[in-house]
Design a protein that fits this description.
The complex is a heterodimer of chains A (94) and B (254). By secondary structure, chain A is mainly beta. Helices cover 5% and strands 41% of the residues of chain A. In chain A, strand 4 and strand 5 form a beta hairpin. Classes of the chains: A mainly beta (94), B alpha/beta (254).
């Protein structure tokens, strides 16, 4: 079973349909073990309905993405936060 | 408001674009390089991939990811596709698609498994089978950008006949100074090669790669088991795990 996954790189297309920046380079912090690393380093399983990404540190489910014909369902329960690199020129004060 | 390019993607969400096949060439009996013309292609970085979508007459759609095989060349993008015998998409791309036919494509995708010619650290590329494709894009990018960054490639293939880009890799091209290529044959080794055919091991990575003290950036691409093995070896040899970037082929290929 351990061989049935891909890297988080595989999320680039499905997430790119939703977000205007490339989220695979965002640094993800796992709610299960506090590991941090690029989304591209997660383990992605496709043999579920949709895509399931697990933390390579503790195997917790950190992201789930299901695409239906007219909507995308994105669940980030296992992710504490995402640090998303942005170009300084695009900065907007919050 | 203008949005700055982030990680090689020019702002805005991804859309599917029409891509017309303009050229194809055989790499092996089971793999073909397909060159598509994609109007207004925004350019890409070596190592990035695209999603290809096919739509059947009844509306059924199938999407697969393929690595870009060459650096950006205007509106032209090159993929090398290995035919998976029971696959849904790859047999059509390699056998069914004729010059002038179109598919849909979105990208470029993925800003992490990329190499930029502005980087200065030595590079180790480790390819398993068709995992050579994004690494070949890096090699070609190095050549076309005139980069002198030392590159080493370890290419694991089953037999000599399974080698993609065989001629281009065998004969150093202008700009290939500082590039070393070594092969690992896993089923059948060519005559005159001392190493018996076997899966990649620590000795192969040790002799074909860089010492960890050189702090190379390592890119490993191939089937999941292969990538797992090589990444573990690299870390065991002292490489910083953060410098080992991987791209695994999943079970959904084809």
């Amino acid at each position: 079973m351990t061989l049935l996954y891909e890297d988080g790189n595989a999320l680039a297309g499905p997430l790119g349909e939703i977000f205007a920046v490339d989220l695979t380079v965002a640094i993800q912090r796992c709610a299960g073990c506090d590991r941090t690393g690029p989304l591209a380093t997660l383990r992605v399983y496709r043999h579920a309905p949709g895509l399931v990404a697990r933390c390579p540190g503790c195997d917790s489910v950190v992201l789930r993405l299901v695409r239906t014909p007219d909507a995308a369902f994105l669940n980030l329960t296992g992710t504490l936060n995402l640090k998303i690199p942005l170009s300084p020129s695009a900065q907007t004060p919050v | 408001m203008a949005r700055a390019a982030v990680s090689g993607r020019l702002g805005g969400r991804l859309t599917w674009r029409g891509a017309r096949l303009v050229e194809r060439r055989d790499e092996t009996p089971n793999a073909r390089t397909l060159v598509f013309e994609v109007p207004d292609w925004p350019g890409h970085l070596a190592g990035q991939h695209v999603d290809v979508r096919l739509t059947a007459e009844d509306g059924y759609q199938a999407v697969r990811s393929y690595s870009l095989a060459a650096p950006g060349d205007g509106d032209r993008v090159a993929l090398t596709v290995q035919r998976v015998p029971d696959g849904e998409v790859s047999p059509y791309l390699t056998e069914g698609l004729s010059i002038g036919d179109s598919v849909e494509l979105r990208g470029p995708l993925g800003g992490w498994f990329v190499w930029r010619p502005t980087e200065r650290d030595p590079v180790l590329l480790v390819a398993g089978g068709s995992g050579i494709v994004p690494l070949m894009a890096m090699l070609r990018e190095r050549r076309s950008a005139g980069s002198r960054v030392p590159f080493r490639l370890i290419y694991s293939v089953r037999t000599p006949q399974d080698t993609f880009y065989a001629d281009e890799l065998r004969v150093p091209q202008p700009g290939d100074g500082g590039l070393d290529v070594s092969y690992v044959f896993t089923r059948t080794a060519p005559d005159g090669v001392a190493r018996a055919a076997a899966r990649i091991g620590l000795a192969d990575v040790n002799s074909g790669g860089w010492p960890a003290e050189f702090e190379p950036n390592c890119f490993v691409c191939g089937p999941t088991g292969f990538v797992e093995t090589v990444a573990d070896i690299l870390v065991a040899l002292g490489h910083d795990a953060r410098r080992v970037k991987t791209e695994r082929f999943g079970p959904s290929g084809g």
